[in-house]
Design goal:
It is built from eleven helices and two strands, in the order αβααααααβαααα. The chain has about 350 residues and is mainly alpha-helical. Helix 2 packs antiparallel against helix 4 and helix 5 packs antiparallel against helix 7. The protein is globular. The N and C termini lie far apart (about 65 Å). The structure holds protoporphyrin IX containing FE.
């Protein structure tokens, strides 16, 4: 069945839609893209939007001075119920974004959506993933609680390992501004700005290269928005329920020189690597994951041995990642910094 060609025209829309140029949504896309596995990227975007909105509110209450950070979060939790809820939405949206981005990555990997001409689209996605990890890390250290202090100690120890490249992550990099305050700047300006720029590129490429859905049947992009809106509402509801049912706590103000916590779940695979390989695991594990992601569009260009090996490696890495997260969550806490 073929869909009639987009009949763009202001007369088909109401006066508001006309002024918002909504006829621009009437381009056609593969009908197959109307399914959930093609909406995971857009749902990640919904989580990012929740993060941005709730994050803006949090900046009004959070104090990035090292001695005040913890008490400002404590204040949010104990004195302003609505902002407490928005903080929990923020934290759960961050987890949601991570789950969704990995689901999106896995779906794209499985359908080989990275093949010619979409290699750049894939690589922009790899950068987005790195930025999400950066945002998650810088967010974790902001609370100034024990988990935050240990995360920061790990980061500075990791920065030591990479020599000059790690200098900006050292306390002494700019003596006038504490590291925590600088990381706050990175969390609320540098990384979001980079994310918006790379996301702009990602979406531009999707708009102009289209998605790699099989089949010849076409549908108007507008028809995609209705199921997507439904899934987005469901996502917002799930995040809201989690925020109410499982509020994110705050540990005691952090004390340096101790290692008694584990990182948030999305970093547990790195923690597992540190358990097995020592501090170098902190560099090796991300290098393996991102190194593999970077070569995927090169190693799997066309059907053949390269494609098979890439698929097997990808699935193996994914299984290792999940097993490592579960192992690190269940294994007794371990020290890595030699404290
Ligand atoms: C902030 C994170 C991300 C957002 C918001 C995002 C958004 C999107 C959206 C809206 C689409 C269109 C259809 C779909 O959802 O499949 C898409 C497609 C795509 N994304 Fe992402 N994405 C993100 C991260 C990633 C990552 C981590 C990768 C891979 C490493 C990636 C690679 C791709 C590719 C290759 C396509 C085209 C898929 C195809 O044509 O089959 N994206 N992305």
């Amino acid at each position: 069945m073929t869909t009639p060609p987009p009949t763009a025209g202001p007369t088909r829309h109401g006066p508001v839609a006309e002024r918002l140029a909504l006829h621009g949504l009437d381009y056609d896309v593969p009908a197959r893209a109307n399914r959930l596995d093609f909406m995971l990227g857009a749902l990640t975007l919904v989580s990012l939007t929740l993060l941005a909105v709730t994050g803006i509110v949090l900046t009004q209450y959070y104090n990035p001075a090292p001695l005040a950070a913890h008490s400002s979060v404590q204040y949010i939790i104990t004195n302003v119920p609505l902002v407490t809820f928005l903080r929990d939405v923020h934290v759960w949206s961050a987890s949601g974004a991570m789950v969704l981005v990995f689901a999106h990555l896995a779906a794209v990997f499985w359908r080989r959506g990275f093949r010619n001409p979409r290699e750049g689209l894939w690589w922009s996605g790899v950068l987005l993933l790195a930025l999400l990890f950066g945002l998650s890390f810088t967010g974790t250290v902001l609370t100034g609680d024990q988990e935050a202090v240990e995360a920061l100690a790990h980061a500075t120890a990791g920065a030591d390992l990479v020599g000059p490249l790690g200098v900006p992550l050292q306390e002494a990099f700019t003596p006038s501004t504490p590291l925590l305050t600088r990381l706050y700047g990175v969390h609320v300006s540098v990384l979001p700005l980079a994310l918006v720029l790379i996301l702009g590129l990602h979406l531009w490429l999707i708009r102009h290269l289209g998605v790699s859905a099989a089949g010849t049947e076409r549908a108007l992009f507008r028809s995609h928005l209705r199921p997507l809106g439904g899934f987005a509402l469901l996502l917002v509801a799930v995040v809201g329920i989690f925020a109410i049912a499982l509020p994110h706590g705050l540990l005691a103000p952090g004390v340096g020189g101790f290692e008694v916590t584990k990182p948030p779940w999305e970093f547990l695979w790195i923690y597992a690597a540190e358990n097995l390989l020592g501090m170098n695991g902190m560099l090796i594990a991300p290098a393996v994951l991102f190194g593999f992601l970077a070569i995927v569009p090169i190693s799997d260009r066309q059907p053949g041995r390269g494609a098979t090996v890439t698929r097997v490696l990808g699935v193996t890495l994914f299984v290792i990642l999940v097993v490592a997260i579960v192992y690190a969550a269940l294994a007794p806490g371990q020290t890595h910094l030699g404290m």
